[in-house]
Specification:
Helix 2 packs antiparallel against helix 4. The chain has a 7-stranded mixed beta sheet, with helices on both faces. With 214 residues, the chain is an alpha/beta fold. Helix content is 38%, strand content 21%. The termini are far apart. It has one domain: Vaccinia Virus protein VP39 (Rossmann fold).
């Protein structure tokens, strides 16, 4: 996917308004500027930032389109991918969870500069974030699936939709949780890289520990 392809895909899928385009452009500029001082994205991806990062994040919205009301929670948000892209395109309440102080400061700065009043940041580990009933949970390069599910189970209920980009390791990571976690799992190909995959899951709960929260 070229950068022109990426922009065309965004317009076709989301009918992006002028105001939203400006927010996305501003976010990309802020991300590139901050990346000069801290390692937010790989330098090799900068020439392809709209495809590798913006579209790669935005596609998760399509996979969670049937999620119910409630917040979107992003684990280990780092540079704000996918969370800030999602927040630019959608008004669902967004909670980003991030432990690193510089990353937390960056995320809060972008929220303020872009006027994303529906987004906020929890500065701390996922495991200690307050329990909630998230409508959607996402995580991009956060942790292997067994650790990811264990650390975030208290943020979900039986209706939560998990959208988890996993590159080429999706099938292997699903195999690793078959004996310990139950739910409806399936794998979707990424629109930016057909060799990469996204795990989508619902009704996720640990086996042998009773039913998940309602």
């Amino acid at each position: 996917m070229t950068e022109d392809d990426a922009r065309a895909w965004l317009q076709a899928e989301f009918d992006v308004s002028r105001e939203t385009w400006q927010r996305l452009e501003d976010y990309v500029s802020l991300l590139l500027e901050a990346s000069k001082e801290q390692n937010l994205i790989a330098a090799s991806t900068v020439p392809h930032i709209w495809a590798r990062h913006v579209v790669d994040s935005a596609q998760l919205l399509l996979l969670a389109k049937d999620a119910g009301d409630g917040s979107w929670v992003d684990l280990g948000s780092g540079a704000g991918l996918p969370a800030l892209v999602i927040a630019c395109l959608d008004q669902r309440p967004m909670l980003m969870i991030e432990t690193r102080r510089k990353r937390v400061d960056f995320l809060n700065s972008v929220i303020d500069q872009l006027g994303l009043d529906h987004a906020k940041v929890f500065g701390g580990r996922v495991e200690v974030a307050p329990a909630m009933n998230a409508a959607v949970i996402s995580a991009r390069a956060y942790a292997p699936l067994p650790k990811l599910l264990a650390s975030a189970a208290h943020l979900a209920n039986k209706n939560s939709c998990w959208v988890l980009p996993k590159g080429r390791s999706a099938e292997n990571e699903l195999e690793a949780v078959r004996g310990s976690w139950q739910g409806v799992f399936h794998v979707e190909p990424s629109v930016t890289d057909r060799d990469s995959a996204i795990i989508v899951a619902r009704g996720v709960h640990p086996i042998g520990k009773g039913k998940h929260r309602p």
